[in-house]
């Protein structure tokens, strides 16, 4: 089943390769969407794909980056009409 979620991560997640880390694993899982930096030491990701793969990616983002110091982690389902062709970092 297809799922779309928005993940908002705050803490020490900028300047440590976190976006590249997210991009690499998202592509490995076959997800679509994007990851980008936001002001205030936050990273936003839109994850689109099979529910199991989205859930795996959420767990990877929450706990697998060796330099990240996550202070807050929010996940919300989104209803977007946009269909992303792949996964990429946007600026």
Index terms:
about 90 residues; alpha+beta; 2 helices; about 45% strand
Word description of this protein:
It is a single chain. The protein is an alpha+beta fold and 91 residues long. The chain has a single domain, classed as Alpha-Beta Plaits (2-Layer Sandwich), CATH 3.30.70.100. It is built from two helices and five strands. The chain has a five-stranded mixed sheet, covered by helices on one side. Strand 2 and strand 3 form a beta hairpin. It is globular and about 30 Å long. The model has no long low-confidence stretch (mean pLDDT 96).
Strand content: 35-45%
User: What is the H/E order?
Assistant: EHEEHEE
Please tell me how large the radius of gyration is: 12 Å
Fraction of helical residues: 25-40%
**Unreliable residue stretches:** none
**Morphology:** globular
CATH topology: Alpha-Beta Plaits
What class would the helix/strand composition place it in? Answer: alpha+beta
- N-end to C-end Cα span: 29 Å
Number-wise, the strands total 5
Quaternary structure classification: single chain
CATH architecture: 2-Layer Sandwich
- Rounded mean pLDDT score: 96
Top CATH class: Alpha Beta
Number of domains: 1
């Amino acid at each position: 089943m297809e799922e779309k979620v928005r993940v908002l991560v705050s803490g020490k997640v900028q300047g440590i390769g976190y976006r590249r880390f997210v991009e690499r694993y998202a592509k490995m899982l076959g997800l679509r969407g994007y990851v980008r930096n936001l002001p205030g030491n936050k990273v936003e990701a839109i994850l689109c794909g099979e529910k199991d793969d989205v859930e795996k990616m959420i767990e990877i983002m929450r706990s697998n980056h060796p330099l990240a110091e996550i202070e807050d982690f929010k996940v919300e389902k989104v209803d977007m009409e946009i269909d992303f062709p792949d996964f990429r970092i946007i600026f």
